[in-house]
Amino acid sequence: MTRAVVPADLEGLVRAVGAALDGDGPPVAPVPVLADADPGDAALVLRTSGSTGAAREVVLSARALRASGDGTHARLGGPGHWLLTLPATHVAGVQVVARAHAGHGLTAAPPGAPFTADGFAALVRRAPRDGRRYVSLVPTQLHRLVAAAESGTDGGARGLDALCSLDAVLLGGAATPTALLRRARAAGARVVTTYGMTETCGGCVYDGVPLAGVRARLAGGSGVVELAGPVLADGYLGDDAATATAFRTDPDGSRWFRTSDLGRITGDDQPHLTVLGRADDVVVTGGVNVAPAAVEDVVAGVEGVGEVCVVGVPDPEWGQAVVAVVTLRGQAPSGRPGARPSDAPSARSSEAPPDLPGAIRRRVADRLGRAAAPRRVLVVTDLPRRGPGKVDRAAVARLAVGHDGA
Prior knowledge:
The protein is α+β, with helices and mostly antiparallel strands and 406 residues long. It has eleven helices and 22 strands. The protein folds into two domains: 1-278, 3-Layer(aba) Sandwich (Rossmann fold), CATH 3.40.50.12780; 282-402, GMP Synthetase, Chain A, domain 3, CATH 3.30.300.30.
């Protein structure tokens, strides 16, 4: 039986991924494989971050990874040198390694190092200056760079200048508040929002437009996003039932992956996909459906708010109550995204302006209606995270249940 190689360090991973992509090496798994199954001629076996429940192991072929890399470089203006700031145990980080193999090399931050503005500036200085240069970030990292510059934190200006010197900044892993995108782009950062998941070799829709060969549609009547194209995974290792449920083939032979996200598609000549949030995140309060992503986008525009996560918690009167858990803009971050265990509660902050909860409720009520206005606002020093820095909604919900808010 074929066994996936688990490299001991980043240098070994870079070599192993390159060999697998070139067809000269066995499948690569950044973390030990759990399933007792043969990955065959796969290039990568990646464990999902578990955002839809139990983590699964996704089988990615060299063909799919090459299609993803080629589509990315074509969209960005050509191959370039890649900067690695994300853990290479998840698809976002491993894809940087794969794209670097097909591009002009890789410069990596020290594994496990805290993500800071000064550290990011130093990483960019180490990268070659000739040719195009790219980086992939999660929204938390972009927030920290922008907030450090705006607050005058030591190294903040250097970090933002370094960001703006790059030819493209891919941003994915979670929804990005409109206010943060506006601030980053106004500063000169060439931010490209991405949407995708491990089953699609990472991001496959850039700024709402699918990469070459990728198609998006909405499942009939449900609004759930489905994706097709050469970037799709082969399936889940050792789990034929889950593979058959998630990946389906149409009568015309096209193969589709059903996501867990709700979306909207507009435009005829060039369809544009807007992701509205996860289907299972919708909060039903007083009989009204509230999309957390929409509330988060509005709350993030309130003066003084840093990061936001909106969840629903049990409520005897309303069924579920909308709760906004926020950090303060300019508040000292905890370091590398994902550094703290996801179930460790964040300390509450006592530095919030006294009218912040009221300002949040009024803004949301004005923009989205009274039902969407958070009934409680909890201000914390940081949000629980998982995987490559994604906010852990389940942990945030536990935090919201365990604390009273304003």
